[in-house]
Each structure stands twice: as C-alpha cells, then as structure tokens.
Amino acid sequence: MTTPPFLSDRLLPLADWLFRDGPRDLDLLFAGALERLETAGLPLDRVLLALEFLHPEVSAEGRLWVRGEGLSRRLLERSEERLEDYVNSPMHRVDTTGQAFRVRLDQPLPPMQLLPRLRDEGFTDYAIYPLGFQDSGRSAAISFATRRPGGFCTLDIQDLDRTVSLLSPLLEARVIRTIATDLLTTYLGSGAGRRVYDGQIARGDCESIFAAIWFCDLRHFTGFAQDSLSEAVIQRLNCWFDLAVDAVEAHGGEVLKFMGDGLLAIFPADMLDPRVACGHALAACADLSHAVDAFNRTPPAGQPPIEYGLSLHLGHVAFGNIGGARRLDFTVVGPAVNIASRLLDVAKAQECRVVVSEAFAGCSGRAMQPLGTYPLRGLDQPHAVFTPQG
Fold first, then answer.
1. Is residue 255 domain-resident?
2. Nearest-CA neighbor of 264 among 337, 210, 358?
3. Model confidence over 164-218: pLDDT tens digits?
4. At the N or C end, where does the chain have fewer CB atoms within 10 A?
5. Tens of pLDDT along 50-70?
6. Do 64 and 129 sit in the same domain of this protein?
7. CA torsion sign, 273 to 275 to 278 to 284?
8. CA-based angle 240:243:323, to the nearest 5?
9. Residue 148 lies in domain
10. d(Cα 226, Cα 230) in Å, to the nearest integer?
11. What is the dihedral of CA 116, 120, 124, 125, to 10 degrees?
C-alpha cells in the first residue's frame, strides 16, 4: 500500500512560501497564510487564531478572519477573563484534551455558547486544532469554519490538519519572540528592553547618553506602611506608580527602576537642543500633578491623599549593564544621577512638589523660581535649586 504524501498539491504553495519567505511579523504571517489557503481553494469562511501571551495587562490575543469582513484583532485583557466562558468553549476542550475537535453544525450540538451562534450565522462545519507548541502549558489554537453546504470533506480536514502542522513551529517562534520583548519591556522599559534583546547583555556594556533625569517618591509612606496591612500598602504603591508611570510614558520618558516608593526615569536629550527633553519632562510633571489632584479629590477607600516630591536634572549618564556576573541590572549611573537623587531632599525640606537643578533650569527655556542654594548629601559643592513657575 502506497503511503500518501504529507502535503496535497494545493498546500505546496503555502509550504513553499512559509519556509522560504514567511515574514517575521505574526500578523503578516497569519494574513499571508490565509491568502494562500483561499487561493488553494479550501472552503474557509471563518478562521480564528487564539494565542496566550505573558503580559501584565493582556492574557491572550485573537486574530479573526471572516470572509467579506476581513481580518480583525482583539486583545483579551486580564480584567475581562471569565472562567465560565472559557470552560464552556471549544478552546477549553482542545486545551484539556490536546486533541482536535470538530462539530457538524447542522447536527445536535454540545453545550458550548459559540456553536449555536455560528450555526445561526450560517456556518455548517467547525474544527479547532491545538497548535503543537513545545510549551504545552500555554493555550494556542486555530479554528476553521465553513458555510459550504455539507461542511468540510475528508480531503479538507486532512489539509487543515496538515496546515496546522506547517504553521505551528513558525507561530511558536513568533509567540516566543513577542513574549520575550513584552517581558523585557515590562521589567526593563522599552529602550532598555530593546537594547538587551538586541544583544547588549555583557556586564559593563554601557553607553554615555545625555538625558533629563527624573526622580520621584511618595511622602509619608513609611508611616503608612507601618500602620497598614500589606494589601493596602501594595494598593497604595500601585495607585501611585500608575499615575507616575502614565505621566512619564505619555511624554516619551522611560521608567528604569522602582525603588520602594520611588521611581527613576529618563528623557533622552539632544546635547545641541536639550529643551525638547526638558519640555517633555516638565509636561510629564504637569500631567502627574493634575492626576494626583484628581486622585486626591476622591481617593479609594482606605487610601489617604497622595503627597509626593519630584526632582529633575540634566546631564550625562552611563546607560547599561551593572551587577554581578550572572545577575545584571540595566540602569543609569553617574554623577548626574546622584545630583538628581539628592535634589529630592530639597523638595522634601521645602515642601515643594517639583524641584530642578540649575542645569535643567538653564536649558529648559522655561520660567523658573529660585529656591536658593543648598548643600546636597554626599556632594562637595552646594547647588542652586529652582521650581517651575505656574
């Protein structure tokens, strides 16, 4: 008995394209595969690619193609996850069994919410396949549905099964890349994460950059932490950092480090025109001030109003890897970082939300109010300190 070839003739163009020219971008890969499956004549009217990721806000992504409607993408936020919807779904079936699941929609249906809806929309056959990822603990599946009378034929099902085998390793490589970049961005920041992913991983591998340096921290947090349950402490930190991170990132800054109740960020600057970076940092300061004021008008139950201090300095920093041989941190170091940090003491002593150094004030092009000259802890020379006007 002759063994049939793995691929039918109509799948050969898809296989050739995938392994010769398949793009690195996940969306382009999926769209290109759909185009070639259509050209091959498979009777597809709906295809859904569902992938689980590791992201603090998004648990999964769905890419849905429907004939006549095109391709759409939906992110499932972690706050939207509903266990009962997942348990009563074909996705749960393939996740738990590791096997494909097919249903003729013109016959009695199992109790899954999706299937009657598909039947009402005119679909006649539905098949969902688990993607054969090496990391089997993460959901990954692709489903196909047709409106053709009589549903899929035997050859269609064979070709769909082989299509899944072709796509699985390529999709997994792109999912792993997305997870890696998401995790690096989440824990290191976008710029630092990109540098690490691109290979800047050796200890001492640093570059000198010119930047506006931002430090901020909560006031009265130590007393709050001593008098509160750990859940309330975590909630307070998250409320505070939500406001601060949103303000920084909205104006092109990069958060590098959380230190207790404090935050370090940078706004990369052009030495020839640092006013742009200073302007971004000051705009972020204004956003943070407005956000904190709004929070303080109606703070969550058990949370006192937020009081904070913020300091800005401008200078050269070493941006890169420091640490032990096998445990590194990607951050900024240098005298300019020390000055920015010490300026927080002045903000606290003057009960001022925002203070800036003379270097920052002089390059910002903005009106500044002088606060005086102050010794900074651990530094030899006193420094003139300013606060933005208005």
1. yes
2. 337
3. 999 999 999 999 998 888 888 888 888 888 888 888 888 888 889 999 999 999 9
4. N
5. 998 888 777 788 999 999 999
6. yes
7. negative
8. 70
9. 9-187
10. 9
11. -30
